[in-house]
């Protein structure tokens, strides 16, 4: 099985979401999260709203 992640469409969104999450006490260097946040504004906002569900 080939597992290749796409690149984030909006790298600045990745930075904004990760900074917002860090302010709420969540930090992760997980590449998958960067791809998700950079390609889906909805999932980025959801992650900020439901930060407790991220772990």
Number of DSSP strand runs: 0
Give the C-alpha Rg: 11 Å
Sum up the overall morphology in one term.
globular
* Series of H and E elements: HHH
Distance between the termini: 27 Å
Query: Helical percent range?
Result: 55-70%
**Biggest beta-sheet profile:** none
Query: Proportion of β residues?
Result: under 5%
Pick out the low-confidence regions. none
On the 0-100 scale, what is the average pLDDT? Answer: 93
Structural class: mainly alpha
Counting DSSP H or I runs of 4 or more residues, the number of helices is 3
Could you say how many structural domains there are in total? Answer: 1
Summarize the structure.
The chain has about 55 residues and is an all-alpha fold.
Can you tag this structure with a few keywords?
55 residues, mainly alpha, 3 helices
Can you describe what's shown?
This protein is 56% helix and 0% strand. The chain has three helices and no strands. The chain starts with 10 loop residues before the first helix and ends in a 6-residue tail after the last helix. The model has no long low-confidence stretch (mean pLDDT 93).
Question: What's the arrangement of secondary structure elements?
Answer:
Layout: H1 11-23, H2 31-39, H3 41-49
Helix pairs in contact: 1-2, 1-3, 2-3
């Amino acid at each position: 099985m080939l597992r290749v992640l796409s690149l984030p469409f909006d790298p600045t969104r990745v930075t904004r979401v990760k900074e917002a999450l860090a302010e709420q006490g969540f930090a992760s260097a997980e590449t998958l999260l960067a791809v998700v946040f950079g390609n889906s504004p909805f999932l980025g906002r959801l992650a900020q709203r439901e930060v407790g569900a991220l772990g």
